[in-house]
């Protein structure tokens, strides 16, 4: 299939062309037993699209969703696609100030939120001249009530691949979050490329446990692009996952999900006998957990690498050997390189900055032309800000964000290299390596570790063990033990918070 040709025009229309012939087949089934067929998807998104149009939402207008996961929430996104509106997913666990910033920056014409948030957000909607409707996890709210009065048919406009499809705000670890503009072409191409790489078919059923705001791209859309089915879990509850696995073929989650599953006695080979694929990503997978997962289930995890601006960039192949230290090769149509500080490609095996070119690049940052300009080289290469290396076969190993690079005494230290050594030590559940100010070295390498319950751990012993395999300048000058790591909603360790916590560790004592 020509992925570029198949990614043209309106995103919903492109996905509609991939629906199964039998529209009575299930698209979504929720934990509470609600079922949405592809025929119902067509009808419901038409009613929602007509509702949007009746509210004056047109092409390019933003539709914000501050929602729990539900079939109706997913169909709201697809209805926005049908009208040519731009969807704005907002995670429900953000603070009030974070939500307010995104709303004031993006200025959506319509906000659909949890019913319990409506009272606080209504005042902002009134000031901004926007509409506000509600939707809960069970599909109840003013959105559904208003939708029922609308016609069940809608003429989807043709649209263009370069039209905006969604604005997804970055995590904002180095300042205010930026709104990355996804185009129709990027969203559809990425979904088709993943469906191709993972060989998703109409017979696949993916167990969806990811958060709503982060579960559209890379989870929902590849299944939709193959005419498959989704089984929704409101959130990750290990008991629910173990109970649901015998009835599905695919599961996608972050490493912390798999760490929790491995602690469940019911997570066995028999439980996973019907599974075809387990996908991991969004954070590094520990080698010992990778091996433990294979021993327990008889399956090997498949890793992928992505980021907000580019969606999924690389993925392991189904038939290629899988290792915990690589995220595979670029998706079909994507070019990837690793460069030095001058922007020149480095040889295989050497570390540098990851850059890429996709058939449909993201359209830049919302209302931030200077940040958009700085994100691209003149030849169109997008500067990811991540460090990594390519092997001889083109497999990418990601070593971390550029902002996490530690320069100690003028020498580069890549945190993942040190974290790999720490995670292999007995008793270490997880580690994070950061750089903090140091009067002599500029930055000092500091390790923060979370231990297994009852672990016998010695910071000095850990330093001694690391010194056997790492150069002296890479060995942490301090090892701190914390009861729990600070994490974001995807389970990633928030290193910025750790840097703040330990920034005065080597500060001179005040007389």
Describe this structure in words.
Strands 2-1-10-9-11-12-13-14-15 form a nine-stranded mixed sheet. Strands 4-3-5-6 form a four-stranded parallel sheet, with helices on both faces. A four-stranded antiparallel sheet has the order 16-17-18-19. It is built from 16 helices and 24 strands. The protein folds into three domains: 3-179, 3-Layer(aba) Sandwich (Rossmann fold); 301-402, Luciferase, domain 3, CATH 2.30.38.10; 405-502, GMP Synthetase, Chain A, domain 3 (2-Layer Sandwich). The protein has helices spanning 3-6, 11-16, 38-54, 71-83, 96-106, 118-128, 142-147, 184-197, 216-225, 238-244, 255-261, 287-297, 369-375, 415-423, 459-467, 495-502; strands at residues 26-30, 35-37, 62-66, 86-89, 110-113, 131-134, 164-169, 179-183, 205-208, 229-232, 250-253, 277-280, 302-307, 311-315, 329-330, 335-339, 352-357, 382-390, 396-401, 406-408, 411-413, 428-438, 442-451, 478-481. The longest helix has 17 residues, at 38-54. Helix 3 packs across helix 4 (71-83) and helix 8 crosses helix 9.
Key features?
alpha/beta; GMP Synthetase, Chain A, domain 3; about 25% strand; Luciferase, domain 3; four-stranded parallel β-sheet; single chain; Rossmann fold; 3 domains; about 30% helix; nine-stranded mixed β-sheet; 24 strands; about 500 residues
Task: Give a nutshell description of this structure.
By secondary structure, the protein is an alpha/beta fold.
Main sheet attributes: strand count, strand direction, barrel closure: 9 strands, mixed
The amount of beta strand, in percent, is 15-25%
| Mean pLDDT score | 93
- Secondary-structure content class: alpha/beta
């Amino acid at each position: 299939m020509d992925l570029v040709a198949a990614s043209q025009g309106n995103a919903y229309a492109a996905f509609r062309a991939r629906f199964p012939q039998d529209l009575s087949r299930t698209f979504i089934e929720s934990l509470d037993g609600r079922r949405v067929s592809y025929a119902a998807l067509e009808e419901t998104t038409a009613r929602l699209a007509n509702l949007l149009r009746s509210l004056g939402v047109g092409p390019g207008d933003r539709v914000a969703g501050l929602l729990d996961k539900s079939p109706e929430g997913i169909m709201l996104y697809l209805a926005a696609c049908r009208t040519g509106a731009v969807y704005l997913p907002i995670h429900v666990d953000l603070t009030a100030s974070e939500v307010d910033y995104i709303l004031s920056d993006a200025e959506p014409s319509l906000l659909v939120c949890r019913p319990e948030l409506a009272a606080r957000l209504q005042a902002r909607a009134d000031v901004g001249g926007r509409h506000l409707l509600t939707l809960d996890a069970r599909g109840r709210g003013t959105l559904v009530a208003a939708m029922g009065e609308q016609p069940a048919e809608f003429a989807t406009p043709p649209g263009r691949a370069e039209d905006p499809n969604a604005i997804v705000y970055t995590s904002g670890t180095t300042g205010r979050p930026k709104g990355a503009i996804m185009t129709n072409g990027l969203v559809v191409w990425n979904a088709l490329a993943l469906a191709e790489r993972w060989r998703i078919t109409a017979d696949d059923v993916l167990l969806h446990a990811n958060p709503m705001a982060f579960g559209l791209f890379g989870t929902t859309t590849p299944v939709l692009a193959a005419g498959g089915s989704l089984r929704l879990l409101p959130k990750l509850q290990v008991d629910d996952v173990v109970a649901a696995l015998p009835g599905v073929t695919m599961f996608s989650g972050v490493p912390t999900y798999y760490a929790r599953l491995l602690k469940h006695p019911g997570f066995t080979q028999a439980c996973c006998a019907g599974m075809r694929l387990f996908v991991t990503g969004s954070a590094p997978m520990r080698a010992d957990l990778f091996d433990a997962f294979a021993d327990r289930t008889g399956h090997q995890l498949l890793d992928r690498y992505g980021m907000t601006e580019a969606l999924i960039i690389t993925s392991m192949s189904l038939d290629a050997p899988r290792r915990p230290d690589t995220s595979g090769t670029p998706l079909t149509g994507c070019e990837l390189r690793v460069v030095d500080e001058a922007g020149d490609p480095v040889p295989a095996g050497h570390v540098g900055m990851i850059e890429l070119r996709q058939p449909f690049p993201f359209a830049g940052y919302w209302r931030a032309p200077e940040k958009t300009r700085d994100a691209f080289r003149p030849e169109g290469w997008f500067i990811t800000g991540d460090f990594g290396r390519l092997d001889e076969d083109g497999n990418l190993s990601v070593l971390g964000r550029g902002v996490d690079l530690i320069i100690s005494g003028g020498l580069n230290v890549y945190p993942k290299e040190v974290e790999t050594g720490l995670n292999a030590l007995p008793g270490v559940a997880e580690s994070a390596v950061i750089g903090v100010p140091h009067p002599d070295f500029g930055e000092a390498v500091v390790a923060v570790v979370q231990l297994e319950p009852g672990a016998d751990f010695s910071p000095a012993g850990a330093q001694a063990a690391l010194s056997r395999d790492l150069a002296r300048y890479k060995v942490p000058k301090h090892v701190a033990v914390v009861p729990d790591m600070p994490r974001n909603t995807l389970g990633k360790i928030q290193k910025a918070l750790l840097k703040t916590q330990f920034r005065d560790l080597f500060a001179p004592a005040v007389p």
